[in-house]
């Protein structure tokens, strides 16, 4: 039985995927997940038999999509990882290249270990390599307080002190001080259990959203859009970007997060998407700015708009957000002329 693995991703829709899938306008076909993020929606689509094209501008998210969406049958074992012999010279070169992580998000000795793991990943074939990189990503996030890479170093040091953490929060959070490898082996089976074959040719892409749509050379059934909105925790490049920088895989992408330009850029995105699909499904909530009504009004010129709503509470760092939100799906059925 496959299951979505432990990812740690801000804005993850994992608790909403059943509702999202139930409200999709087609129960089979090809779906583009344009801002796939932590891949929870892509994973649910794969489970439900769709052909899934997962895209994100961040390499850290592309790695996830390669590992658990595009990958249908390649799993990792602890034994094969332990059998890999790494080249110390290459490890030292990697260490010099990622030295910017020292005393920024990790201690120097941890950067050495990370260099060894990156070198180890180079000995794995394509599918297994991405599985291993996804596990490295998980380990990197798990070791940082608040699970994001833009926490100031002095705060990281303070919160990784288990006695301080216990005194202030009554939790020692010892998992921050496990090695990367300990985290990897702890999560290995969980990630292996996420691998399954839905008998479709699923694909992963690392492209700017506009480039992804422009390069899409076939008409798909649904384009699912869950972009970073101006009013949300939207600094994903800061939250996870050091992973991209570490592998020299950062790309340029259109920033949708400015409230002054969001609607203009969003309509441009919809205009391009409308010629590539029969239906567009957009995730947002009642706290999104621009508002649900603003976005729905914009969409009406492209076809018929249907709105679905669901009450939902988000969790941040294991705490319930006391303020209940209304999660919203806007379903746009494209006019024939598009």
List key phrases describing it:
338 residues; alpha/beta; Rossmann fold; two-stranded antiparallel ribbon
3D structure, described in words:
The chain has 338 residues and is α/β, with parallel strands linked by helices. The chain has a domain at 9-61 and 200-235 and 248-338: Vaccinia Virus protein VP39 (Rossmann fold, 3-Layer(aba) Sandwich), CATH 3.40.50.150. 41% of the residues lie in helices and 15% in strands. It contains 14 helices and nine strands. It has helices at residues 17-22, 40-47, 59-70, 78-82, 88-97, 108-121, 126-142, 153-160, 162-169, 180-192, 209-215, 236-246, 262-273, 292-299, and strands at 30-33, 51-55, 203-205, 220-225, 277-285, 303-312, 315-316, 319-320, 325-334. The strands form two sheets. A seven-stranded mixed sheet has the order 3-2-1-4-5-9-6, sandwiched between helices. Helix 3 packs across helix 7, helix 5 (88-97) crosses helix 6 and helix 7 (126-142) crosses helix 10. The two termini are 40 Å apart.
């Amino acid at each position: 039985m496959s299951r979505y693995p432990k990812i740690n991703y801000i804005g993850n829709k994992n608790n909403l995927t059943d509702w999202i899938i139930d409200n999709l306008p087609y129960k089979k076909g090809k779906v583009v997940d344009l801002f796939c993020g932590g891949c929870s929606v892509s994973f649910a689509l794969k489970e439900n038999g769709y052909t899934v094209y997962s895209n994100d501008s961040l390499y850290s998210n592309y790695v996830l999509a390669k590992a658990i969406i595009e990958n249908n049958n390649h799993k990792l074992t602890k034994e094969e990882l332990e059998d890999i012999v790494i080249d110390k010279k290459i490890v030292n070169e990697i260490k010099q290249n990622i030295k910017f992580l020292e005393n920024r998000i990790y201690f120097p000795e941890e950067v050495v270990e990370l260099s060894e793991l990156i070198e180890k990943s180079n000995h794995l074939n394509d599918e297994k390599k991405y599985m291993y990189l996804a596990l490295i990503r998980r380990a990197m996030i798990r070791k940082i307080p608040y699970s994001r890479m833009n926490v100031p170093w002095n705060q990281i040091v303070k919160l990784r002190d288990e006695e301080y953490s216990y005194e202030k929060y009554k939790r020692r959070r010892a998992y921050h001080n496990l090695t990367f490898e300990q985290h990897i082996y702890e999560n290995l089976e969980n990630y292996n259990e996420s691998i399954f074959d839905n008998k479709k040719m699923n694909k992963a892409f690392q492209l700017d959203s506009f480039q992804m749509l422009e390069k899409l050379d076939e008409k798909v059934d649904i384009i699912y859009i869950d972009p970073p909105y101006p009013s949300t925790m939207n600094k994903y490049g800061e939250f996870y970007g050091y992973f991209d920088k570490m592998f020299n895989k950062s790309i340029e992408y259109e920033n949708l997060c400015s409230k002054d330009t969001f609607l203009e850029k969003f309509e441009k995105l919809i205009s391009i998407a409308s010629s590539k699909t029969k239906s567009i499904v957009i995730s947002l909530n009642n706290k999104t700015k621009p508002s649900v009504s603003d976005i729905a009004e914009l969409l009406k010129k492209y076809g018929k708009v249907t709105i679905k709503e669901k009450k939902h509470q988000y969790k941040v760092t294991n705490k319930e957000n006391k303020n209940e939100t209304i999660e919203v799906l806007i379903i746009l059925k494209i006019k024939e002329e598009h």
